[in-house]
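Sequence in, structure out. Go.
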Amino acid sequence: MNTPPSSTVAAGGRLDRFFEISRRGSTLGTEIRGGLVTFVTMAYIVILNPLILSTPDVDGSVLDGNAVAAATALTAGVMTVLFGLVTRLPFAFAAGLGINAFLAFSVVGSVTWPEAMALVVINGLIIVLLAATGLRKLIFDAVPVQLKLAITVGIGLFIAFIGFVNAGFVTATGNPSPPVDLGIGGSVATLPTLLFVLTLLIGGVLISLRVKGAILIALVSGTLLAALVNAIWPFGLDFGFSGGIVALPDLSLIGAVDFGFDLQRVSVVALVMFVFTLLFSNFFDAMGTMTGLAKEADLADANGDFPRIKSALIVEGVGAVVGGATSSSSATVFVESGSGIGEGARTGLASVVTGGLFLLAMFFTPLTSLVPGGVAAAALVLVGAMMLTQIKNIDFTDFRVLLPVFLTATVMPMTYSIANGIGAGFVSWIVLHAFSGKAKTIHPLLWAVGIGFVIFFARGPIEALFGVAT
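Output:
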């Protein structure tokens, strides 16, 4: 009989005790496998995040795609490992899709990218403070669950709409009616748009079959298909590997933040509301996701609380600070962590494995530049569709719930602004409940948020009244 070396047994024992592997009914192999599966299911963010953050800012400047990919992988790796070690929970971190979309399509129209990332850092510092004092959970409990779910649904629709537009599946007509149309003149018979459709269908089939890493596989499949089509019928794609597929990561964006906001270009009111919206999106999405994952892993009690919840909320705030400081957008817990939990992961060791793989992925970021825009757009639609599933948990029998949820979910894509959707939902919720005999059900903190959004919507006249430049 072969006996493992005592050092191996001791190491295994230390890992077991530190991460509570046996206590939670798991094994070392299960945790490693769970961490690997989680990485595969969310690795697409290294490709997708640079594409979302490619929007020109107010000065017309854009972030370098390879640098964003490297920063995305670095931040995801560092924060996931840190979270696993501090909380011992199997949750992985990466750039939050709703937050990066808000930055790209709402914030940088008014500020530069370095200024936008400074706002993310400020948002993160506020979250850390709120979490450390216990106020974060108190505020989370004050907002009706229907509005929290509606925000997720709205962001999903917004992200999907961005995908449709980027793929050329939906185009602006330039006419009052209809303002948009399907493809060009009602036709989607162009190679980029057809590749988008094929990639979307491939991803849809894989997700339907519950294939692990479905979005990543769809992206790779769509890219290979695009390369094949481009070789037969060239349509302007460049798949050359001039620099190779492995390279030292470009970390030039680390520290590229600017807190010297140009108040001649953007008002103080607008900056405050940008931070508020970032804070709200980061705040509620992360808490809701962590609560759901903890329940999935059988680590939450009847109230939704889970082990080391305060530490988890503090580290999540640190993720926003680190994400802003690396110009990769706020890093937050990913719902795709549920794939690893589904494989049996129950401890932070799985997170350490996932984080280590993200750190390794930094050296393969040149691959991200190969993904055509139409193929990447399909991933946006797939993610948006999955976010829509939260709508099943909303009770629509009460119109006081139905209208605010509807406004939240539809105003976001229709106005190309997450902040507008959240504000429309909050203000309408307060008005409908206050004037239909349910004023006492509105939490005082919700009143404060609603007043803030009224100021946000009326900021033009307010700024003119006080002589504040926009």
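Check: DSSP finds 19 helices and four strands in the chain. The longest helix spans residues 268-296.
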